[in-house]
Design goal:
The structure holds 2 protein chains of 2 kinds. Helices cover about 40% and strands about 15% of the residues of chain A. By secondary structure, chain A is α+β, with helices and mostly antiparallel strands. Chain A folds into 3 domains: about 1-115, Beta Polymerase, domain 2 (2-Layer Sandwich); about 165-200, no CATH class; about 205-524, Cytochrome-c3 Hydrogenase, chain B, CATH 1.10.645. A 5-stranded mixed sheet of chain A has the order 1-2-5-4-3. In chain A, strand 6, helix 4 (about 100-110) and strand 7 form a beta-alpha-beta unit. The longest helix of chain A has 29 residues, at about 250-280. The two termini of chain A are about 35 Å apart. Chain B is an alpha/beta fold. Chain B has 2 domains: about 30-120, 2-Layer Sandwich (Alpha-Beta Plaits), CATH 3.30.70; about 130-270, Rossmann fold (3-Layer(aba) Sandwich), CATH 3.40.50. Chain B has helices at about 1-10, 40-45, 75-80, 130-140, 160-170, 200-210, 225-230, 260-270; strands at about 30, 50-55, 60-65, 85, 100-110, 115-120, 150-155, 180, 190-195, 200, 220, 240, 250-255. In chain B, a hairpin with a 2-residue loop joins strand 2 and strand 3. The longest helix of chain B has 13 residues, at about 200-210. The relative contact order of chain B is 0.18. The chains are: A alpha+beta, B alpha/beta. Bound molecules: iron/sulfur cluster (SF4). Iron/sulfur cluster binds next to helix 5 and helix 7 of chain B. Iron/sulfur cluster (SF4) binds near residues 161, 223, 224 and 231 of chain B.
Chain lengths: ~525, ~300
């Protein structure tokens, strides 16, 4: 274990690197060293997984944290620095590492810390009528604080359109379909899209602040509601963080059942998305077949686990559901049938020329752009980036199961569709292994009554859309002081912005669907 | 082409004949007040304050349960030392007011032992289900026939409710057969189906959408969040809370998320086809003033099937 620490310390050129627990490292650096350490980390092949600030009270001030993910040796390295109250600024790395762009501006919006040298210091998360000042995630800001609206205080700068026949198409926040709210501003020349600007954060619910107010056990339910389609993914990431914080060992059976839950969530979302892609190119038969398959899955989830969308199944310390032998077999039979029908469905799609015409070469996100923007999950794997925490930093039962990580090179709608289709195959195999090898024993380890004081831990889970990260920090009394939630959507939305220009406007829905990003997870 | 055709023919009809026939293993918690000692154990584990106790006087205690806030996490069922909370299987809960989603039991506290014993249910404030239904009917007065155009508005949800709303349109539930269609513009809508705690950033958009809809613009609030703010709370810097904090609501469909069946039921309530129901043990339990003779002990409150058939 310490060998891994020494390797990482050497690569990052750091004098000290603490190993907080297996796979989690931290080092404090001087503020002005941040960019140099970032260069070292990026040069050594680490990727920036998240970036955030904390407010450690009036005595200590704020801190800024860069969390880097290393693949070999596997580990997360948190490089952090103090930001004293009398100098609320930090050096930006966004010009060199575009993945930091939104993260740093979010720190600016919610903590009032200035990213110095950031190429674009407009607000990202706060809307126009939010007054200046009022950093919502600072400790001095009360959760119930009423913040006045100042209309037109900070008008969002949309790119101007100039030239004959060039115009803007504003869409949202209330869309035509049943989807979440967000605003898209297209610059178009006839049908072709010249650029796409995103204005999100309409569904910002103050979740990170809310974590600080709720008892830590109730945080699990809040985690389930970060993005409803990723209830298991976020619940697991939060549970992992709390379990690592308390040093609780989750029993083997629970680890297997958690794997089953996470894969079921992947399955029902992937199947639904493939149907939705078919809907968006008006291919009705496979679309409704997919809907029926998806409905069959959520219905059996409800029967076996008590909730259609698998809410309330993950517990801190284990799982809250049981699976008897008979029910396990019922699930296996259902999955076998699903597997056969799913193969038919995919064949139906990719053998149809009218379908592939619409998805081939549509909405391309190149490998380099995906890497620069820090794109993760299915979108990354469809653009040739071979990342998957289930294999790279295995959680739950993944280390004892055999599976492949499908990667496609195309970066287009078809590639994202094919990554899903191939992942469904892998998921079915993982489910079969986990269900057949389901160990006996307890499904739960009770947690201590309190969290350790002045401590922090990272929890992660590779959910269907990509990695969910929860970083939980406690104060001197063991209360939750900060939870930083990173939903894969936050890193992938800029990827969508990059993939759309050059396509025609009518292809936007299908490109958007092929990413299927969460607004709620992004906005929190 | 042939493959597509044969696929469709082989599949046959997948639509559920009666979408209200399947019951979930867990709908909402049902309190058997006669076994309850108002001990506060359930209140401590409830993540959304759906369960609350109050001490109006030294010798009085109340316990209330609101489905508007309940996220169906089942914690209370496991926490109750008296086993007085049952997993109810009813899901077709839809009412016309927040109060109608709440029930409150009164307890008398024995000063010697400190033990509370159940005396009766408190009368629910506000109009009854029937009164509200009549009022809604009056408002829509024949303007909504047996066809309903629905504009869905996500005012801040986690997208769980959207997944279930989308599911109502899938081939299994097929809400179009009830004459219900989702439309793209509020200007074409009879009903706004609104989810989520209303966020500060969606408040204005929701108001505008509401104003854009033609009269009688019936509003159906969906989900624990739409009914009360749910787990996100009410009146935080970012979340205003339930939809009724911003626009008037005609029908409340609780649940986190409500099943597609429940959403369908809520829309049928808005059309006046189904009757509003406040859930297990709510409407059926006649309000009794405190001090009246308590109901016979150990009789659990009976969950009642939809449309009035006792189970
Ligand atoms: S009620 Fe539940 S599912 Fe619906 S928006 Fe709220 S948290 Fe999400």
């Amino acid at each position: 274990m310490t060998a891994a620490r020494d390797v990482l310390r050497g690569r990052l050129g750091l004098p000290e690197l603490a190993e907080l627990r297996p796979g989690e490292f931290a080092a404090e650096v001087k503020r002005e060293q941040l960019p140099a350490v970032a260069d070292q980390a990026a040069g050594a092949g680490l990727r920036l997984a998240t970036l955030f600030a904390t407010d450690d009270g009036p005595a200590k001030g704020c801190a800024l944290h860069h969390l880097w993910a290393a693949r070999e040796p596997p580990g997360f390295v948190r490089i952090w620095t103090r930001v004293p109250a009398d100098s609320p600024r930090f050096p930006s790395i966004a010009a060199k590492y575009p993945v930091a762009n939104w993260f740093e501006r979010e720190v600016m919006d919610y903590f009032g810390l200035v990213p110095e040298g950031h190429p674009n210091t407009f607000r990202v998360a706060l809307h126009d009528d939010w007054p200046d000042g009022f950093p919502a995630l600072r400790k001095a800001f009360a959760d119930e604080q009423k913040v006045p609206r100042v209309p037109g205080n900070n008008p969002h700068p949309f790119r101007p359109v100039l030239g004959e026949g060039v115009f803007q198409v504003p869409v949202g926040p209330v869309h035509a379909g049943i989807i979440e709210p967000g605003h898209f501003r297209f610059g178009v020349a006839g049908e072709p899209v010249l650029y796409l600007q995103l204005r999100l954060f309409y569904v910002h619910k103050g979740i990170e602040k809310r974590f600080e107010k709720l008892p830590w056990r109730h945080g699990l339910f809040l985690a389930e509601s970060i993005s409803g389609d990723t209830a298991v993914g976020h619940a697991l990431a939060y549970a992992h963080a709390v379990e690592r914080l308390t040093g609780v060992e989750v029993p083997r059976r629970a680890r297997y059942l958690r794997t089953v839950l996470l894969e079921l969530e992947r399955l029902y979302n992937h199947v639904a998305d493939i149907g939705a892609i078919a809907t968006d190119v008006a291919f009705a038969v496979p679309a409704s077949r997919a809907q029926v398959l998806r409905e069959g899955l959520v219905a059996i989830q409800e029967r076996l686990f008590g909730a259609r969308l698998l809410r309330g199944t993950v517990a801190l310390g284990g799982v809250k559901c049981e699976l008897t032998l008979g029910r396990r077999n019922e699930l296996l039979v259902h999955l076998d049938r699903l597997g056969r029908e799913f193969d038919d469905l995919v064949k139906l799609l990719i053998d149809s020329g009218t379908f592939t015409d619409r998805v081939d070469g549509t909405g391309v996100l190149g490998t380099q752009a995906a890497r620069d923007l820090g794109v993760v999950g299915i979108a990354a794997r469809a653009s040739g980036l071979d990342l998957d925490l289930r294999r790279d930093q295995p959680h739950d039962a993944y280390a004892s199961l055999r599976f492949q990580v499908p990667v496609e090179e195309g970066g287009d709608v078809r590639a994202r569709l094919m990554v899903r289709a191939r992942e469904v195959e892998q998921s079915l195999s993982i489910l079969r292994q986990a269900l057949e090898g389901l160990p006996e024993g307890p499904s739960f380890t009770p947690l201590p009554d309190a969290l350790p004081a002045s401590s922090s831990a990272l929890g992660w889970a590779e959910a269907w859309r990509g990695e969910c990260l929860h970083w939980v920090q406690t104060d001197e009394e063991g209360r939750v002081a900060r939870v930083k939630v990173t939903d894969p959507s936050f890193k992938n939305w800029p990827g969508l912005g990059r993939a759309v220009p050059g396509n025609i406007l009518p292809d936007f829905p299908v490109i958007n669907k092929s990413f299927n990003l969460s607004y709620s997870g992004n906005d929190r | 082409m042939f493959r597509i055709l044969s696929k469709s023919l082989k599949t046959g009809v997948v639509t559920e004949k009666d979408p209200f026939s399947s019951r979930p293993p867990f709908g909402f918690p049902v309190i058997d007040f006669n076994s309850c000692t108002a001990c506060d154990e359930c209140v401590a584990v409830c993540p959304t304050a759906a369960l609350q106790t109050d001490r109006p006087a030294a010798d009085r205690k109340t316990l209330s349960l609101s489905y508007a806030l309940c996220i169906q996490c089942r914690e209370c069922v496991e926490a109750c030392p008296e086993r007085a909370i049952h997993p109810g299987r009813e899901f077709e809960v839809a009412t016309h007011s927040r109060e109608q989603l709440m029930q409150r039991g009164s307890f008398v506290v024995d000063p010697a032992t400190g033990r509370a014993s159940f005396r009766g249910m408190d009368a629910r404030p506000g109009p009854s289900l029937e009164e509200s239904a009549a009022r809604l009917k009056e408002r829509i007065k024949g303007r909504l026939g047996r066809s309903l155009h629905v504009r869905q508005v996500d005012a801040g949800s986690c997208n769980g409710c959207e997944l279930e709303i989308i599911a109502t349109a899938n081939p299994v539930f097929d809400l179009e057969r009830f004459g219900i269609h989702f439309v793209a513009s509020p200007r074409h809508a009879d009903v706004l189906l609104v989810t989520g705690p209303v966020t500060r950033n969606m408040e204005i958009a929701l108001r505008r959408t509401y104003e854009a809809a033609p009269e009688p613009r019936v509003v159906v609030a969906v989900g624990a969040c739409g009914c009360s703010g749910g787990i996100f709370g009410e009146g935080t810097y970012a979340s205003l809370g339930g939809v009724d904090r911003v626009v008037p609501v005609d029908v409340y469909v609780p649940g986190c998320p409500p099943r597609p069946h429940a959403i369908l039921n809520g829309l049928l309530v808005a059309m006046g086809i189904h009757q509003a129901r406040s859930g297990p043990g709510g409407a059926e339990l006649a309000p009794q003033p405190v001090g009246a003779s308590p109901p016979s002990p150990h009789r659990p409150l009976m969950p009642v099937l939809a449309r009035g058939t006792p189970e």
